[in-house]
Amino acid sequence: MARELPYIAAINEAIRLEMQRDESVLYFGQNIATTKNDPFLQEFGSDRVRVTPISETAEIGMGIGAALAGYRPVVELYMAEFMLVGMDQVVNEAPRFRYMTGGQVRVPLVMKAGYGFTAGWAGQHTGSIYGMFMGVPGLKVALPATPADAKGLMATAIRDDNPVCYFQHYLLLLDHGEVPEGEYLVPFGQAAVRRAGTDVTIVGTGWTVGRALAAAERLAGEGVSAEVIDPRTLEPLDTATILESVAKTGHLVLVDQATLHASASAVIAAEVADAGFSYLKAPIRQVTALDATIPYSRPMEEYVLPNEDKIVAAVHQVLGSAPVAAT
Amino acid sequence: MARELPYIAAINEAIRLEMQRDESVLYFGQNIATTKNDPFLQEFGSDRVRVTPISETAEIGMGIGAALAGYRPVVELYMAEFMLVGMDQVVNEAPRFRYMTGGQVRVPLVMKAGYGFTAGWAGQHTGSIYGMFMGVPGLKVALPATPADAKGLMATAIRDDNPVCYFQHYLLLLDHGEVPEGEYLVPFGQAAVRRAGTDVTIVGTGWTVGRALAAAERLAGEGVSAEVIDPRTLEPLDTATILESVAKTGHLVLVDQATLHASASAVIAAEVADAGFSYLKAPIRQVTALDATIPYSRPMEEYVLPNEDKIVAAVHQVLGSAPVAAT
Amino acid sequence: MTDTNGVEGLDRDRLVWMWTQMVRVREFEERVKRTFEEHPGVIRGHTHLADGAEASIVGSLATLRPGDQLMTTYRCHGYPLVLGTSPKAMMAEIYGKAAGLCGGYGGSMHLTDVSRGFLGTSGIVGQGIPQATGAAYAAQIRRQGQVVLCFFGDGATKQGAFHESLNIASLWKLPIVYVLENNNYNVVTRVEQEDANAAAGEPLAVKARAHSMPGVTVDGGDPLAVYGEVGAAVARARDGGGPTLVESKVYRLSAHGNSIAPPGVPLHFPEHEAITTFGATEEYEAAKRGDPVPRFRAKLVTDTTLSPAEADRITEAARTEMQEAVEFGLESELPKPEDAVKYVYA
Amino acid sequence: MTDTNGVEGLDRDRLVWMWTQMVRVREFEERVKRTFEEHPGVIRGHTHLADGAEASIVGSLATLRPGDQLMTTYRCHGYPLVLGTSPKAMMAEIYGKAAGLCGGYGGSMHLTDVSRGFLGTSGIVGQGIPQATGAAYAAQIRRQGQVVLCFFGDGATKQGAFHESLNIASLWKLPIVYVLENNNYNVVTRVEQEDANAAAGEPLAVKARAHSMPGVTVDGGDPLAVYGEVGAAVARARDGGGPTLVESKVYRLSAHGNSIAPPGVPLHFPEHEAITTFGATEEYEAAKRGDPVPRFRAKLVTDTTLSPAEADRITEAARTEMQEAVEFGLESELPKPEDAVKYVYA
Ligand SMILES: Cc1ncc(C[n+]2csc(CCOP(=O)(O)OP(=O)(O)O)c2C)c(N)n1
Ligand SMILES: Cc1ncc(C[n+]2csc(CCOP(=O)(O)OP(=O)(O)O)c2C)c(N)n1
Ligand SMILES: [Mg+2]
Ligand SMILES: [Mg+2]
């Protein structure tokens, strides 16, 4: 039987293996390696592993500079929202250098941050803000949903010659799953079909993949066969796999932890409403967070988030409404 | 005949009138009012009109603080990209205070910035980044496309009790148009039908409204009747008007100066692919900027931008493909 | 008995009031902490305590007049208690209840009481500093002699927002006092590991020099010293003399915050990082020995401002008050789920 | 003739080389400026000139060794010329041609020549500072004695990024020299209108104090003074002594940049803001009288390092060289439209 690891350990394993493999990989950020006992510090030394001050603009900017100078930094940023204080570096600097210099440079930089910590972390620490990083030319975005992908996408991110936002999901940190040992790469831009099905396509990312799978399980009990797709990276986005599925099922439900207008699902819906229009037998329905800052208190927090009930209801709607579209 | 004003003058007129009307309105930002001759400074004095250092994080943060303390600041930010260095204040502070305090406070704040200066300003000053501000609960986004709207939306923004991103378009600054005198308010969340039509709905914002109108004119010559809609605000977004139009035309083309995955058009397409699915006779096509940082040199810059040819071609595609969807 | 203890304007009642507030903060925080063990699951997310900073908080806030304002970080429980906010409403907020100070929308990190001049908090390090500066701009042009206090940690001085704000405040002579609570730690990072001044053996107050602003360092364990320095700065600010950076040296007596874990894993309050991360048990013990709450009690008892019996009564009253807050919080109702979509827009 | 002019290591050839580079920068910028009148429409967007800063640029770059690196702002034409980049490729870039230094992708604000250690520019104020600091971190751990120069304006010191970077550089003792080109203006804002130090009559170099870093102010109109201060800082950085902030006082002799207008409106280069905005004609005239290019020529001629005839020959050669750059730029081909989608990803 293959080895199981928690998601968080899988990420660390990937960083460690890549640092062993390539001396130019650096790892720095806040509140890491502050004592000699830190395993990264012990293995790779203080040239390559450093604690930084709470200075995200400088941290990300320094990541860019070190990348321009030939290194491959992984910047630990803890929470995606903390990137907002250095947002210019993320979207208006890192991804533009190569282009503006006419291809003279590369910026191999991994910006690693958690997101979506809807566990009472209230308004400023719970966002699912990956949508802001989509459509930024030159930037890639990875959203691992499983421990294996957490490892494989991190390894790929580190080897990529472009800036990559690697967003791990806080609610998944301790999820266990099979993780291949040794070198393991998950290619960017290749969606995973997490469950095969024929009646409806459900697309989720990160934590909502699990919600979609649970909904699919429940739907199976009703005789509805749902295919569940996890794009794994938002940039590049594997629309081909989604379109293939919709060609088969004719029905699409998108699940997203972000609000409707900030969601990756809107982007996917728009792609399918163009290239996959002729496959569609019913409206594309999105199950997203409600349009509210995430509240602290549990009942309100639960209320605004997507969940299995909402996904199942959306599937019922698109299946039920299929005849309407056929008229 | 009604009075004509350039877009830029219309904006200033709105700020001036609101400052006359309400003493709590402040106006500050970089490189304004640095001499006694400044008309705003002369009329309203240095309490209410101030030049700030190049410190966007502090400028926007101070806007929030002054708003919490009872004022209504308009912060001049020049270019939307400059907001990126203070992005946390824009999306993770200003719009969250009211909610996180359970309604104790309001943050009436206008963040005023230009965008889309695709006139050789190269990679870092030409973005159409309004998409990043969509779906942020508590935040509103206005994108005036005409001098009249420039005035009316600014007045509404200043009177709004919520943080508003007011994005003026750099390519339109000197466009002339009729502007009502005196108090003039354009309500948020009400799209304008810029041209009535029956065969296809074209939605554009800001500078692309003009491109869409020009394309519609050309299409009219071919006997195709295009309806052109300008949402005017992205948050709130008037999907009802768009849906009504699509109900009539059955065809939708969206024009956006942003890249495909960062566009407001993706959000609109997704809304229509749900609520308006049964109206659609053809795929929804988006005409956006190509997936590249904006290049400096003119031929390349023109290549990546949406234009009339591309819009006309998209309309041909959706009209031509209508029979496919009807099978 | 000394009436003023060398600090102008502090009579006996005020001194006793100061210690009382310190005890109230401590007792509140103790109960927040205990809630993790005694009522698992009631507090969610991330909670940061003010224990150890009581003298600094009380000494600072004692300088304010009605109409003055303040903004703080996520480590925000101490201030409203001193301002007179109901501990019941505060505890209910931390427990996520509808009767909470913010209706359960904000939780521990965002306690706000606008009615008492407490305009809000930011959970994002350093980002509250420009906000408080903006409130000071408002105070300046309102011309009613208001002053704003801006509280933040040592770590926050590494955010650009700190420097941008101080420059403007100094340039515009804004009526604001920046109270830098230097507790030596940013989570598990010691200040000399992230701060060039600290690494060079200089106080963090020298940062004020970059903005041609006065900067002072004060023993944040002594409420009278804090009162003196912050008070002088407040007076200058009120007189149009501009801002001051006051570095108040404190030691937080609990860990940075409760444990961070996905749902399902019970949360707890770990030991202080000095011990768990750095093995610096003696550092922590020394801080405990210097605990500002008993320290100020001893001082007041020694100089006969306060009798031991009265001190005990005050402590007892605070315990009762805060225990009632716990009970109120526990018994209160959760908000209605659908209220989540209220207050998104004004 | 003095061989070293009191500045170590500068022989006659090097001094003449320095003046030559100053002249080359000036002649290049003059032609960029003239292009707005002589070839309207050829330069698009926003162009910022280095005239007035030649002594500072040359004095700074003269301290470098092969392998050293630099990063700058959008005001970036001077540096690559001194490093040896082809003015033809530079002018072609500014004209948006395929043969341009960056293939027409970047334009005036983003001249970059990685082959000469010039790693890039940012058009966003202050944002290049952490990037250069990251390059210095790379240099530190590469252990080949490289030093990084980081150039930026007075306005940029109001960005948080500046302070965040200086703290880390000081803390980590990075091999970097921060050259603050204080030209007294941020567009139409005078430095004392936005900077608390300037308003208090202090040099901007005092900002270094906030980071326990040495800070010095130097006459940026004197290349030897700049060479001396930057050289000392570079030497210290190379020896592991850590970073320095060097404030170099310059005066830009042209407006901030060309006029800003939508397409269709011809662009032009206005007069300096001292005159147009502030009516401070005498300030501007004084700066003109102190123009570093004739000033250094006079010095070299006076001390017989340079003969007037040689100076004229150098000037003539620079004129020819830069005129050829203009012609090359004008004659070069525009890029193919569809090349716009190249170089988006590596
Ligand atoms: C911009 C940002 N980066 C990182 C964090 C995570 N974080 C929360 S509290 C904290 C430590 C702050 O230290 P300090 O300012 O000294 O305050 P203290 O907690 O010691 O009171 C950090 C790093 C954050 N909230 N915001
Ligand atoms: C973050 C940001 N805010 C504003 C601008 C607009 N802007 C461009 S150059 C400039 C002036 C910068 O002044 P300074 O740093 O002194 O450099 P100088 O132009 O004088 O060389 C400003 C405000 C910008 N590019 N980036
Ligand atoms: Mg601290
Ligand atoms: Mg300047």
Describe how the helices and strands are arranged.
The complex is a heterotetramer, with two copies of chain A (327 residues) and two copies of chain C (346 residues).
Chain A: E1 4-6, H1 7-21, E2 25-30, H2 39-48, E3 49-52, H3 56-68, E4 72-79, H4 87-93, H5 97-100, E5 109-115, E6 140-142, H6 147-159, E7 163-169, E8 176-178, E9 192-195, E10 200-203, H7 207-221, E11 226-230, E12 233-235, H8 239-249, E13 252-259, H9 264-275, E14 285-289, H10 298-304, H11 308-320, H12 322-326
Parallel strand pairs in A: 2-3, 2-4, 4-5, 5-7, 6-7, 10-11, 10-13, 13-14
Antiparallel strand pairs in A: 1-8, 6-12, 9-11
Chain C: H1 12-38, H2 54-61, E1 69-73, H3 78-83, H4 87-94, E2 118-122, H5 128-142, E3 148-153, H6 160-172, E4 176-182, E5 185-186, E6 189-190, H7 191-194, H8 196-199, E7 215-219, H9 223-238, E8 244-249, H10 273-276, H11 281-289, H12 292-302, H13 308-331
Parallel strand pairs in C: 1-2, 1-3, 3-4, 4-8, 7-8
Antiparallel strand pairs in C: 5-6
Helix pairs in contact in C: 1-2, 1-12, 1-13, 2-9, 4-13, 5-6
Structural account:
- The complex is a heterotetramer, with two copies of chain A (327 residues) and two copies of chain C (346 residues).
- Chain A has 327 residues and is α/β, with parallel strands linked by helices.
- Chain A has two domains: 2-180, Thiamin diphosphate (ThDP)-binding fold, Pyr/PP domains (Rossmann fold, 3-Layer(aba) Sandwich), CATH 3.40.50.970; 192-319, 3-Layer(aba) Sandwich (Rossmann fold), CATH 3.40.50.
- In chain A, 38% of the residues lie in helices and 21% in strands.
- Chain A has helices at 7-21, 39-48, 56-68, 87-93, 97-100, 147-159, 207-221, 239-249, 264-275, 298-304, 308-320, 322-326, and strands spanning 4-6, 25-30, 49-52, 72-79, 109-115, 140-142, 163-169, 176-178, 192-195, 200-203, 226-230, 233-235, 252-259, 285-289.
- In chain A, the strands form three sheets. Chain A has a seven-stranded mixed sheet with strand order 3-2-4-5-7-6-12, sandwiched between helices.
- In chain A, helix 2 links the parallel strand 2 and strand 3.
- Chain A starts with a strand and ends with a helix.
- The model of chain A is unreliable at 321-327 (pLDDT under 50).
- With 346 residues, chain C is of the alpha/beta class.
- Chain C has a single domain (12-328), classed as 3-Layer(aba) Sandwich (Rossmann fold).
- Chain C contains 13 helices and eight strands.
- Chain C has a six-stranded parallel sheet, sandwiched between helices. In chain C, strands 5-6 form a two-stranded antiparallel sheet.
- In chain C, strand 3, helix 6 and strand 4 form a beta-alpha-beta unit.
- In chain C, helix 4 packs across helix 13.
- At the A-B interface, helix 4 and helix 9 of A face helix 4 and helix 9 of B.
- The complex binds thiamine diphosphate (2 copies) and magnesium ion (MG) (2 copies).
- One magnesium ion binds at residues 153-155, 183, 185-186 of chain D.
